[in-house]
Amino acid sequence: MKRSFTKYMKVFQKNAGNRSWVIIFTIILSILFSPQLISQDHNHDHEHEHVHDSDRQWLAGDHHIHSRYSVGWDYETDPPSPIIAGDAIYPTPMNALMARYYGLSWMVTTDHGGPNHSKVNLEQAYPELLTSRKAVPEVIQFYGMEFDTPGADHSSLIIPHTHDEADRLYEIESNFNKREPYPADSTWDTEPRMIEALQAMDQFPSKPVVIANHPSRSAPALGVYGLYDPAELRDWNDTTPDIAVGMAGAPGHQAAALNSDGSLIQYPRGGYGNFPTMGGFDQMTARLGGFWDSMLGEGRHWWITANSDSHVHWREGGSDFWPGEYSKTYVWADKSHDDIINGIRNGRVFVTLGDLISELYVTANSVTDEASIGGTIAVEPGSDVQITIRFLDPDAMNAADRNPSVERVDLIIGRVTGPVTDRTADTNPTTEVEARFYEDDWETDRMYKEITYLLEDLDTNSYIRIRGTNGEELEPEIDPAGEDPWADLWFYSNPIFIEVE
């Protein structure tokens, strides 16, 4: 089946410039490689708030995928004319088909903006998304964009699936995307304007989700920030804590060091040419006791994700993996638009690279309460809390035809001490690795591994989070240019908070 699919993909790529042919061929492929063609284009206006947890499962997805409507621009015309496939090259149905092929259950189309690009999204990208939903119904597809963020870098803007989703994105992009006006207007590129944009989104009946993408790609050094800085992200989260909910822990463009023949070139993972990634993760996430831990130490519900940032596949001269080929963001949800965005908003998320794991269950139990990833447990002072970590290390080849295995799992704990006085703070000195677990420390139930650990006599508000790796680095080290991305894999959970009452 895989060989046949690859053969069809080669035919597809040769004809990708013909829009009508692309749509027809995608539908044909969907029929060939799917049991049935059905529509999942339901209209909803409110998220599921009361889905029974037994209906939920871990659903892999990607919130940062570019289509051919991430355009180039012909500046010889006035105003500039969009050049379809001038930046990213694939039609949305192609992205969805590849997302399904690599095991994704959901995805978000996130095209860049530009001069009057809001009309491109509304008149061209959105109709193609509607077609894609019908052609590849097995993948829940969200409408969104990579917001050219005022006063910052890029961010994934995920629009809830409602009857007016296209109008909602048009409203945001046309009024706030910093590259929208022509001629360019520097007053659109300020941090206060982003706060204004978030406040406008907060008035929507169904609120979007905003995730800061590649937050340290412009950072020149460790702890020295560029287009994103700690105070700015705190301002976002303070303004709309249920919209500005987190950042990409692992950026896209992780295939940057791969030639089209699979050999390696001296290029940094993620395009992080200033200060490198660390184990494939951004420094804001990877540094123990760093920025992420400082946010969690305030008690903020600030979550991490991973994504492909797919523009052009590495076998075609690009620096990207297909959606799901390398990075996956798993959300604990039922398979619906509403519950998936609810899961992202509420941190029911873990991320992994290279299919190192495919399921992760973390629970904190006391005598009276229990919580899972993204949740909160309340305990009395002096209580013991049992942490249970259960993960699935699949005995299967990943997209690189390798079968990585988990070498070690870390339990990380930090104190929650409340709001910081210094808004630029990027450290939490209380964060530490509470315990490291190796193969001898876990029980095995088929492919599942289970670890239990007792936190004793807790007397202060805290959080715990989990990470794991296939390597031997005790802490994720700086990734050298030309590193094989498949050799250095990590997974991270979002936190569980422990409130001592």
From TrEMBL:
SUPFAM superfamilies assigned: PHP domain-like (SSF89550)
Keywords: Membrane, Transmembrane, Transmembrane helix
Membrane-spanning residues: 21-38
InterPro entries on file: Pol/histidinol_Pase-like
Entry protein name: Phosphoesterase
Organism: Rhodohalobacter sulfatireducens
